[in-house]
Amino acid sequence: MVDATANDIVEDDARARSNVVRLVAAQALTGANAAVIFATGSIIGAQLAPQMSLATVPLSMYVLGLAAGTLPTGWIARAFGRRVAFMVGTGCGALTGVLGAVAILYGSFLLFCVATFIGGLYAAVSQSYRFAAADGASAAYRPKAVSWVMAGGVFAGVLGPQLVQWTMDVWQPYLFAFSYVVQAVIALIAMAVLWGVDAPKPKPAERAGGRPLLEIVRQPRFIAAALCGAIAYPMMNLVMTSAPLAMQMCGLSVGDSNFGLQWHIVAMYAPSFVTGSLIIKFGAPRVVAAGLILEALGAGIGLTGVTAPHFWATLFVIGVGWNLAFVGASALVLETHQPNERTKVQAVNDFIIFGLMALGSFASGQLLADYGWATVNLAVFPPVLLGLIVLAITGWSKIRKRAALAATELSDRGV
């Protein structure tokens, strides 16, 4: 007799694997777009802004767009399907490149901030790639699906900074202007890739029902997942957005900055080839904890010197830590919702993460300008400690709950 359930699982995972291939490619292309903004945003900001303390505002606008786009992305995906959300996102990516180039050509700081904000909207959509990879997949395959899609960022780490290096001087004296034109083209290529993703519009039954959102987000496991994601990403972003300008302030070259950012992005995504397996073997909470500890270690390296190798090592170690913490936290989120609750829960999770990241991002430029690179690194330690404490409390509560259930079962049996 054929096991229909087993056959369904095989078919669902085969569909998920097919989607993963496209989502990996899209992650690489979208990540390259983000790399252009992070590699150039604070430098262009310093050139166009009326004062140095506003230099990182374009990057903060990117993060603000990222936060602002999370809930609308979830609504679009829930109402019309993920593919429509993907098309809207890549359209924003193309518009970012066009507006960014025009802003540089005309020396408009305000228009450049608008461009990076729209780039953040594109990034908000791209954050759903990791969750889209898990749609319909078996519980055993989901962590690997999320992890593999994140691995696409490795190619972004190579492509993005190199793209800046190859194109930044094409339209002299307008540094980086042509980089943004190429960015628009890359977004259109990503649009073509994502069009083939098998993500049908949700059926009415899938859009209805589910538990109240408040009930879901009050779960200790969701709280731990969202909080750790909201620590891992903003702390990494704080260091990453400050590093290019800090390196310039220390007399290092744009080439040094691009090299550091390139390997930072590789470090952010290369562990994804094994992170899913680590989550399956050790559990998501332990992987998240390891990631947070590595982020603190990277910040510690940043306190030991301001040579190029110090900056590179800081960015690399923090990148690895971010991967473990963020992918692990994403896997935890998948354990907290039912299939018909996924888009709203995932959108709320990302809104919490990127909303907090946006608030911190606006302070990063002032923090660097007023207090220096060392203070940027010191700011990483308190949130990391908080995340580790919450993980420990959540794990302890789970152990107590299991012990109580075991004791109840023994009591029911009369043992």
UniProtKB/TrEMBL annotation:
The chain crosses the membrane at residues 23-47, 59-77, 84-103, 109-125, 145-164, 176-197, 222-241, 261-280, 287-306, 312-335, 347-365, 371-393. Keywords: Membrane, Transmembrane, Transmembrane helix. Pfam families: MFS_1. This is MFS family arabinose efflux permease. The keyword Repressor does not apply. The keyword Translocase does not apply. It comes from Rhodopseudomonas thermotolerans.
